[in-house]
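pasting input
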Amino acid sequence: MIEISGLQKSFGKLQVLHDINLELKSSSCIALIGPNGCGKTTLIKSILGMVIPQNGDIKISGKSIIYQHKYRELIGYMPQIGRYPGNLSIGQLIKMVRDLRPARNEYDEELIDAFRLSDIIDKKMSTLSGGTTQKVSAVLAFLFDPPILILDEPTAGLDPVSSEALKVKISKEVEKGKLVVITSHILSELDDLVTSIIFMNEGRIAFNKTVSELLQDTQEEKISRAIVTILTNQQQV
Amino acid sequence: MNRIIKYVLLDIIKNRLVLGYALILALVSWSLFNLEDNSAKGVLSLTNIVLLIVPLVSIIFSTIYIYNASEFIELLVSQPLKRPQIWMGFFAGLTLALMLAFLIGVGLPLLIYADGGIALILLITGLIITGIFVALAMLVAVLARDKARGIGLSIMVWLFFALIFDGLMLLLLFQFSDYPIEKTMIGLTSLSPIDLARILILLRLDVSALMGFTGALFKEFFGSETGEWVALMLMVLWILIPFWISLNRFKVKDL
């Protein structure tokens, strides 16, 4: 679905991405993890066309996306911190994003119900708490039933109930054959969700393994333990 | 792009600052015309105030708006939209909202109190000045990543064109008063949109005699119909060039 080859990006003198090569296939939930400042968000933003790489290419369904815009119809993006025009209500914002994207027959409004947003649909965006704003971001990402979902720290600000609802939704979408890319710092919550893990460090891909491979290699039962094991082993080497 | 303009406009019109801007302009215009029994004098005072307030509000408000909309711009960029469309949408939305405020604030009293031709030229220059300073604001916002620095730069730009440029021109005039520099002065004037606007209005008001020998030369050049058109074209270029540069920067900007 997404092919990344030889991707390089630097901000001034700081090289953020060093020659990234990746292939992300549909029907999988990929966790992109790594320490702060390792280039996760830059990689995601390159896929979205928000950051323009100096070198290399990103292809979605075989077509290069550099300087293109049409391909974004295929992507639902949930930013880490969503800030929206404060004067709009939740309902108006959803309507606006609908208006800006090509029209569809059906919209996936499951999350609006799951998060109980209908009760506060007329509330202004500027009055919402961080968690509620995050819920709106999630609704917008899933609304168009896109084949690719990119979620940047999706559950960081959510309460346990909503966080669970979102996770259920994510696994449902993966089962439908979608590609879901999640970045997260909270390793424990990834356990029952992801199918493979990409660990980035200092702009390079440290490893890219499926969950079963990872657990086998490290003889651990939980992803979080397995990653810690790998990291401590690497440090010893 | 129309959809983007629509949403930016809706967002700005609900903003109390723009309403306040229209109100202040209206208050100033009405009171000036009521204070002066001679409407030409009223227009003259109004010109001076308009040429200070309109650029200031246009550039500061637009700069702050663009910085505050950074996440909104990110949201738009992550949607299947072309970047130039987004940027043009913001420009059009900002310009239209501020122009509307100007038309309500200054336009209404002008049409009632002032002579048609003068009212028209003041309105046109006011509208173009709005466009110019929105374009400059967008250039500043795309060049300076940091909000505080961006707003500072905007204030500098306004200060330069509204006050410092005039001072420099005056200095030049005095320093080189022994030389025939009038033609150079006309050329230099085109470097400041506010001065272009002021000359256009003053010449229409027929108070160019106040400007001395250079004024006479200005009248000879700008007073003619071609001169007026040249000045207007130069002002339109002052919108197009900064906006074009900002657009090209925005196309490759990392968000």
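fyi DSSP finds eleven helices and no strands in chain B.
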